[in-house]
Specification:
The protein is mainly alpha-helical and about 200 residues long. It has six helices and no strands. About 75% of the residues lie in helices and about 0% in strands.
């Protein structure tokens, strides 16, 4: 008897679920019919890079931005050098004029400039040393934990590449600063030889 009651309860439950599904299907059908009846107007033209008109202008909502007369008067067409050689020549001339303007005249000024450059080199070397130490700590920490190696291989690869790029960049800055120091020393020698009388 108990089993029969259990079977009747289960079958009644299945019947209720089936009726609910049938009722739901009917409501979906009604919704589809209503959507077909309610035809929407076609979408407006959407501009992309592929269908953007190149010969006509596109109107923008709102008034055009006001351009002041001062701004118009201040704008001059940029002179375009005819040749790449002219560009290089202009850059070199600008560098030489800057160097001549900033060129120290006395020995004390030379010493101040060179000591400032040496301090810059020392600071860069200290930063490089700190970056290398931090990188070594991160490497030791990564390889000490096997779980981290398995979970975060991609993240570690990106982090390691960033560390290496930063270290290489810092080393390049140090090399450039040392080259500038050598140039200063050479310029000082030339300036002193020009000032000293020829015997």
């Amino acid at each position: 008897m108990r089993q029969l009651g259990y079977m009747l309860g289960v079958s009644a439950l299945l019947a209720v679920c089936a009726l609910g599904a049938v009722a739901q299907q009917e409501s979906l059908g009604d919704a589809a019919r209503a959507a077909r009846k309610e035809k929407r107007p076609p979408a407006k033209m959407v501009y992309t890079n592929d269908n953007l008109p190149t010969t006509t202008t596109i109107s923008v909502v709102g008034p055009p931005p006001a351009i002041s007369e001062e701004k118009l008067a201040g704008e001059k067409p940029a002179a375009k050098p005819q040749d790449e050689k002219e560009k290089v020549g202009e850059k070199e001339a600008a560098k030489e004029s800057k160097a001549s303007e900033n060129k120290p005249q006395t020995g004390d000024e030379w010493q101040e400039q060179m000591s400032a450059q040496k301090k810059k080199i020392v600071d860069l070397e200290r930063e490089l040393d700190l970056q290398q130490r931090e990188y070594k700590l991160q490497v030791a920490q990564y390889y000490a934990d096997a779980g981290t190696q398995l979970r975060d291989q991609k993240a570690w690869a990106e982090q390691e590449a960033k560390f290496r790029a930063d270290i290489a960049d810092r080393q390049k800055q140090i090399d450039d600063a040392k080259a500038q120091l050598k140039d200063m020393e050479e310029q000082q020698r030339q300036a002193e030889s020009e000032k000293s009388p020829i015997q």
